[in-house]
């Protein structure tokens, strides 16, 4: 299979990756929006988990990662439920890791183990703990393929980063002692700024906060009334919406009608209707500087300032007034 990606270009991939991409669990991700509820209030916020998963695989491949790590990267989000992280708000799961909790169960109940066995790979070894893969996952504030791809993909799609800027950044990434790091402070400063456009300006956009709040409220009601079950979250986004619409329950119908692109909201810390605090997401890339690894914040006042501002905003949370 030849994969052509808007960010990373064209690659020929191994047969095992081709079969995994064509499997039902991976194809389902084409109907799962990465931004969760966001596409319901802004049709341009439409990146899917499928695009992101293939992108993570390609970042790992581009950086010389093993075929095993490419497989792990491709499958790392295969258990994401409808509307991605919205389920964490429904279940009040502050760690926002429900998809990780159910990953092995989703894998086991699919054709993925048979595909991997055909090519002599052990799915438990590859997927039981994705943090064992140095390029795929790293704890914040490090760079990793997952964090890099969702930031670049969202910000390119939503017009906040150009292909030229992204290519300059990608060309500046190297792997040293198994860790993803950068060759220049300029690239580090650019990525820190771009990352905070993602996790502050986009994730905490008042319209996005509204959409998450309203959809999670709707799903909670539908669950309580047994209109949907937890198992239904393994459907695609639109399938779950259709299931709720078909119930003809007045409360659920009323809530669904409040999710549309013409909602008018604003930030208001005094007369707010919604106050939401999510995970604190900080970034401080490693630099390969004078033959050693050093955090960008140790060299850049701009990075230190951006991190301080971001930490304050995460602690404060988002205050949204519905107009």
Summary tags:
323 residues; mainly alpha; two-stranded antiparallel sheet; 16 helices; 9 strands; globular
Low-confidence runs (pLDDT<50, min 5 residues)? Answer: none
Largest sheet: 3 strands, antiparallel
Approximate shape: globular
What is the tally of beta strands?
Answer: 9
Residues in β-strands, percent: 5-15%
What's the Cα radius of gyration?
20 Å
Succession of helices and strands? EEHHHHHHHHHHHEEHHHHEEEEHE
Tally of separate helices: 16
State the distance separating the first and last CA atoms: 49 Å
**Looking across the biggest beta sheet, what order are the strands in?**
5-9-6
- Class from helix and strand fractions: mainly alpha
Helix content: 40-55%
Q: Please, what is the average pLDDT?
A: 96
Structure characterization notes:
- This protein has 323 residues and is mainly alpha-helical.
- 47% of the residues lie in helices and 11% in strands.
- The chain has helices spanning 15-21, 24-28, 49-62, 67-75, 86-90, 98-101, 103-108, 112-118, 123-127, 145-157, 163-171, 185-202, 206-224, 237-245, 250-256, 301-316; strands at 2-5, 9-12, 173-176, 179-182, 265-267, 274-276, 286-289, 292-295, 318-322.
- The strands form four sheets. The protein has a three-stranded antiparallel sheet. Strands 1-2 form a two-stranded antiparallel sheet.
- β7 and β8 (292-295) form a beta hairpin.
- The longest helix is centred in the middle third of the chain and has 19 residues, at 206-224.
- The protein is globular, with a radius of gyration of 20 Å.
- The termini are far apart.
- 40% of the residues are buried.
- The model has no long low-confidence stretch (mean pLDDT 96).
